[in-house]
Amino acid sequence: MALGDFTYGNNSRREDLLSILKDVSPVGNNYLVGTLGTSIARNTLHEWVTYYQARPSEVSFALEGADATIVDLQNPVRSNNITAIITEVIQVTGSMRAVDIATNQDPYAFQKEKALKRMNAKMEFALVNGTKASGATGTARGMAGIDACVTTNVSVLSLVSLSMSHVEDAIQRSWEKVGAEYVADTILTTMALKRRFTTFTTYVTNYANNTNQRFQNVTTFESSAGAVNIVPHKDVATGKLYALRLETFKMAFLQGREPQFVELAKTGDADKGMYLTEMTLESLAEPASVKVSGLL
Hints:
13 strands; 29% strand
């Protein structure tokens, strides 16, 4: 049957291209970048002092009328980290900026927007997993992240299923090492381990009596030492859990090297630029935090 002019055989049709771009890349929601406080570093070797004295495990009583006994007193100690340079470079050709594109957005502006998200994601990864390197002999400087900074309270398990006891044990280790006002208040872990909290039934009360909804999200755990926020994090390695006192960590930016965009010299038929920052992680009270690995 003849159809006359119909769509299938008509090559003059224009394409139907939606002018909306949905970006679902997993580079947003960088918890530490958005939560930690900041400070200024004035050298690539960034140092600070910490002070720690343990509680007494025994007491020697004084004799009546005895002379005062002089003992060595605890002094502050230096701690440090190295500033690391993080960059994200973009380049867009003149032709690319000249053609029509679906979103009607300048490709250079588009790439700047996406590059900023990628750099924030790099900063976030470094804050968790960075490794310290001095930068000698042509090697890029590297900063120690949370994983490398937490050294006092470390538990290495052998593929053990996460339970309420493991969480309480981690918080207790923090409580035993520091004053009550500095006990860990945030658990940073994988989504797989965060989901385990929904299976805990001991000492859990359900206050939602809505039969039309099911509640599977646990965001706060009331530990024996106080409330603890539970945060799933994409950059935490499989099987790891950190119990952190967030206020004791800060991002320190080398002075004048805070996150910024720098236009690069034009050397051809393209526009170039890069986001850059130079930063490190301050760990001001490392004994307050706990690292547990080998969990399921």
